[in-house]
Amino acid sequence: MHFQPKLFETLRNYSKEQFYKDLMAGVIVGIVALPLAIAFGIASGVTPEQGLYTAIIAGFIISFLGGSRVQIGGPTGAFIVIVYGIVQEFGVTGLAVATIIAGIMLVAMGFLRLGSVIKFIPYPVVVGFTSGIAMTIFATQIKDLTGMHIDAVPADFIQKWGVYAENIASIEWPSFAIGISTILIISLTPRITQKIPGSLIAIILMTVVVYVLRHHAGISGIETIGDRFSINASLPKAAAPSITFDMIQTLMPAAFTIAMLGAIESLLSATVADGVTGDRHHSNTELIAQGVANIITPLFGGIPATGAIARTMTNINNGGRTPVAGLIHAAVLLLILLFLGNLTQHIPMACLAGVLVIVAYNMSEWRTFKNLLRGQKSDVAVLVATFLLTVIFDLTIAIEIGLLLALVLFLRRISESTQISIFKHDIEKPEYIEGNTESEKMLLPKGVEVYEIEGPFFFGVANKFEETMKQLGDKPKVRIIRMRKVPFMDSTGVHNLESLIHLSKKDKTTILLSGVNDQVAAVLEKAGIQQELGANNILHNIEEALGRANEILAKK
User: Fold this and answer.
1) Which residue of 151, 160, 226, 410 sits 20 to 30 Å from the alpha carbon of 111, by its own alpha carbon?
2) Domains of the chain (ranges, CATH numbers)
3) What pTM was estimated for this model as a whole?
4) What are the start-end ranges of the E strands in 394-550?
5) Low-confidence ranges of the chain (pLDDT < 50)
6) Sequence-distant contacts of 190-198: CB under 8 A, at least 24 apart
7) Cβ(52)–Cβ(337) under 8 Å?
């Protein structure tokens, strides 16, 4: 494994001009990350400063060790649902243990070079659970967005909306107005300026408005962060959680979900960034960096972190081209926490809810979802199943069943693409005369049959081959298995071939193999098939096989 952090590559030819660009980008991204880190922390069921700790510590580690030049790491919306569930069931200690286990998994993935494999997770699965997460985030923000007076909001999606309907009369209209104003400001800001993020403008404006309303207009019904949390404007000391074997067993599914989410989101973000910058990230190095960040961050009270595509794009758009920008972004957040942290207590909860509603809308990918619904039925089934499982049950089940569905459908498609043809009278030659559009045929001697397999000969196809053999019922003197279009063969395919050889010996039928490639030949040799058939019965092409068949017929 070649561990290649991009930071050390870029520092070899680093210039003063690039530092100024990275400095500007880092400051802007740090400011953008502030409200998001606070919002993600609160929505995940932990304190606002824990969201900031994550953005600072994980953001620094991911930029320092990562395999992308421009990736910005930190807490993201994708983790809200799973983190909230873990905190409610196992507490903050359980979350720390699950995050550390997930970090170890990510490091292992990197060292096992699984970075490229993660990218092949089916797109309908990714869109399904991303849209499901977006819908769940939106549902969790209704209470704060409207200021409803609800003691406890149920975790179940359907029950949640039932409780909202029952308490609709308790809407706090000033809070609702703040939430809607936040959404409008964030939505309209890009039409005016691309430089200053709408979320920052909305939070500053709404915080000032609410401060004036509370202290000068006598309106006290608008809840702020300070009403719910006491802000600790300092970094905590490192403390390792107590880990038991029972906790590891219980939290393993949740840790797997965190690891998979972190891997998918970070590598997708890095791939999108490559498309904009023209660079190429080191996927395995990126996974290791994500893993180290998720092992260390929980020791300081942080939550799971990964590459954040919105902040990464903000970094690129403002001139950031090396990991130095990510390091500066973490330093800016640290300075804000230490010197301005107490001011965050005045931010209204409805405003943060409005920010998360926009995050959920952007995550929903509803246009992509709509387009995928017009695709193949199998893709639609995977998409809808993953979406509904994410919304109605939980993300862990959704990812596991979504991947299982995708795998089953993939194997079905592969098995359907493999054809088994039977020839009793004539067969195509292996090579055609140049300029001749029609395939040239070769006549088969009486007593010779050719069975051609086109496609992979694996467990999904082997049973089809066995059934085809049983249906024939005839007993030719020579049976040629033509395998020129078989790219690989697994143990089930070998077993079925062995069964056919044994059955043919009873029927006094000689088996010949034709057109076996080197990879399949190695599998057959390892399984002892070559020795059983004899080396002279495994031929390079159909012409040699027919020649050998004529020799056998002459002897018989």
Assistant:
1) 410
2) 16-410 (no CATH), 419-431+440-555 (3.30.750.24)
3) 0.77
4) 419-423, 426-428, 441-443, 448-454, 478-485, 510-514, 538-539
5) 431-438
6) 194/317, 195/28, 195/318, 197/31, 197/32, 197/314, 198/358
7) yes
